[in-house]
Amino acid sequence: MENLSKSNIPRPEYPRPQFVRENNWINLNGEWDFSFDDADIGLKERWYKKENSKNFDRKITVPFCFQSKLSGIEDNSFHEVMWYRRVFEIPKQFKSKKVLLHFGAVDYRCLIYLNGECVGSHEGGYVGFSLDITNYLEESNVLVVRVEDPSEDLEIPRGKQFWKTEIETIFYPRVSGIWQTVWLEFLSPEYCIEDLIIIPDVDKTEVVFDINMKGIGFPELSLIINILFNDQSIVQDTINIDFIGKVGRRKNKKLVKEKIEMLSRKMFFDNPSRFKFKVKIPDHHLHLWDIGSPNLYDFSLKIQNEKTSETYDEISSYFGMRKISIADSGNKQKRIFLNDKLLYQKLFLVQGYWPESLYTAPSDEHIKKDIQYVIDFGFNGLRTHQKTFDPRFLYWCDNMGVLVWGEIGNSYRFSVKSQLRLINEFVAEIERDYNHPSIIAWVPLNEGWGVSGAEKDPKRGYYTSSLYFLIKSIDPTRLIIDDDGWWHTGHNDVCTRHFYSNIDLLPASLEEEIDSHKTSVPKPYLKPYEYENEPIIYSEIGGFGYDFKESIEKKWGYGGLIKDSKGLFERVLDLFKEFDARKEWIQGFCYTELYDQFQEINGLLTFDREPKFAPHKLKEKLDTMFY
Predict the structure, then answer these.
(1) Which residues, 6+ apart, have CB-to-CB distance to 398 below 8 Å?
(2) 3-class secondary structure for 500-537?
(3) What pLDDT, on a 0 to 100 scale, did the predictor assign at position 251?
(4) Residue 266 scores a pLDDT above 70
């Protein structure tokens, strides 16, 4: 088996940090065979057959897209169909296991073939998928992936990936094909945990586990849970799960001890393999996850035979006890609270591109470095702009105590097809990332992208409203910004505005802010909706352009170009002073942006992540402002 060593493959870390099976996986990153199929003849000629390896005339390094330097190809021209090929074997110790094939993300549509057979397909470039390939395995296995990424399709949720040949202004290179880790996972064919939702309740000092399992129970089948804080076990218990997979009435008996209580004691007609239980966190062990204090609880779940002690499945994960809420404040405006404390959000806009690897971080250390800069500049969060970020990125935000607004790339044409595509991907994103304590808000739309003309076409506003209710039905615990920047409906948790004008034009009071809604272009609210005391956050500000190394040809910035580091620092500081003066009614900001992006030089860091002025200088000032 090739590439078993972590030392010779890119992105070797476990790719799914909130659902870890530590010793039964193999990373398939590294060198793959590759070919463009510009004439789209691969299907007709059956390139997926074992004997057709001659059609793969290039090598590519997975998980980097072919447009990137680290892929080994670095081709930015239009190639809408591409093929990948990789040979692998299953190690002897896993021959009797069920084998899952996981893709972290493939942009945009793909067909997966194993040993000449189609084993699955997927559409959507941001969130991954898994396939059970057990029944298709042979002694030596040929994995082939056909990817289609339409370069000019404006109904795809493409975010900042430009549909023209050359990038410009706020748009960047396309990202096609595999751009997150590919891996194999080996499971018991009898029982396994399929997915897990974790719902912390700070007020009750308890956490609810919503588990979906695979298999049919027997009397000796148990689920063992162990929760730790700082490596000290604080809750341990065993739940008999003999009811798993069985439809019908379950005996109403006490299943566990006093620390854990089953939530539903009736029937399991809808999904006999899904159940919930809650765990009481002892009061003296309650440690809240907070900005700068990212207290996390580790835990393990194990499916075991009580009599034989045979373990069928074991996962490890973590959670944070934290609460995000909105409440009336008595000053004509609702306020945002984190753990019942007033929250002022100091966010960076983060676009998630790297110079040599585009969407894919070159390493875990590169991710940590970006998040550390957010802290070093004195900010407390970030807005993941027009892209669904790698779970490893969110993992480090969880571990470093940085707030996150979760977003997705938008499409640029309104149609039923574009609506369904965004809905399907965003729902998958919410399900995948639900358990991250750092995420406090969901942002499905930005600046009316994908709903252009909503001010004239009511049905587009109805679609915006529907996204709010859809997301609330999946995740009622977080803030939802229906359309960030403008065109809010009456169904929205935060009034967000984008401001790249002269600071003299900032409203001087809440009354002036509300009055300005009537004359703003575009308007903050779609008719007939109006401001109803929601918290106000200016979720894009600044954008001051400074070419730090004087090396960008077609440079561009929102707020005009600045000549030196001193001028940039002073202008940024002056802007934040104005927001500090308005902190009683503007409850946060998002500065555009943390680092430059190609020709867009709005960052406080260069694209290579070099500070344009010392971060601590700004942090020292920000620490004396706001609340």
Answers:
(1) 289, 294, 296, 318, 320, 436, 437, 438
(2) CCCHHHCCCCHHHHHHHCCCCCCCCECCCCCCCCCCEE
(3) 44
(4) no
Measured at the CA of 363, the angle between CA 358 and CA 364, to 5 degrees, comes to 120
Selection from 182, 87, 103, 185 nearest residue 139 by Cα: 87
Domain boundaries, the chain: 6-187, 192-319, 344-622
Per the structure block, which two tokens stand in for 264?
């539903």
Nearest to 590 by CA among 540, 525, 521: 540
What average pLDDT is seen over the chain?
Answer: 94
Give per-residue pLDDT as tens, 549-564.
998 988 998 877 899 9
- DSSP-derived pairing of the beta strands 206-214 and 274-280: antiparallel
Q: Residue 115: which region, alpha, beta or left (left: phi > 0; alpha: psi -120 to 50)?
A: left
3-state SS, 280-345, equals: ECCHHHCCEEECCEECCEEEEEEEEECCCCCEEEEEEEEECECCEEEEECCCCCEEEEECCEECCE
Separation of alpha carbons 622 and 380, rounded Å: 11
- For tokens 């010793």, name the residue: 23
**Domain 344-622: which topology?**
TIM Barrel (3.20.20)
Residue carrying structure tokens 């009797």: 96
CATH number for the domain formed by residue range(s) 192-319: 2.60.40.10
Separation between Cα atoms, residue 553 and residue 560, nearest integer Å:
15
Q: Assign residue 31 a region: left if phi > 0, alpha if psi is -120 to 50, beta otherwise?
A: beta
DSSP letter string, 398-453: HHHT-EEEEE----SS-SHHHHHHHHHHHHHHHHHHTT-TTEEEEE--BTTTT-TT
Burial of residue 140 (CB within 10 Å: 0-12, 13-18, 19+) is exposed
Q: Is the pTM of this model over 0.85?
A: yes
Residue carrying the six token digits 């004195």? 378
> What class is the 6-187 domain?
mainly beta
User: Any idea what the Cα angle at residue 599 is, between residues 171 and 544, rounded to 5°?
Assistant: 100
